[in-house]
């Protein structure tokens, strides 16, 4: 499963992601250290914030109220914002493209 990630320096990197793990875990294990994921994936830190490419928005799982509330605390929230720890990687997401959100 290939995921394309654009980091804060504007570079784009393709990662091989493993299904059954969250997008956050896959980004971290793929060396994207800008994704701090301070809370370890329990939806309480918002340091795993990414922007999902518009064409992939419909493929995303629905957003929980917790995720929505946490994103609201971010000054960098956009319409395509998601917390990557809340997105399980599935084979259907092959080709997914995301951008790391700016530091808040
Ligand atoms: Fe903390 Fe996603 S890792 S909210």
TrEMBL record:
Keyword check for Iron-sulfur: yes
Metal-binding in keyword set: yes
Co-factor requirement: [2Fe-2S] cluster
Domain 2Fe-2S ferredoxin-type residues, every copy: 1-104
Keyword entries, A-Z: 2Fe-2S, Iron, Iron-sulfur, Metal-binding
SUPFAM superfamilies the record matches: 2Fe-2S ferredoxin-like
Source superkingdom: Bacteria
Protein family (similarity comment): Belongs to the adrenodoxin/putidaredoxin family.
Name of protein: 2Fe-2S iron-sulfur cluster-binding protein
The organism of origin for this protein: Sphingomonas arvum
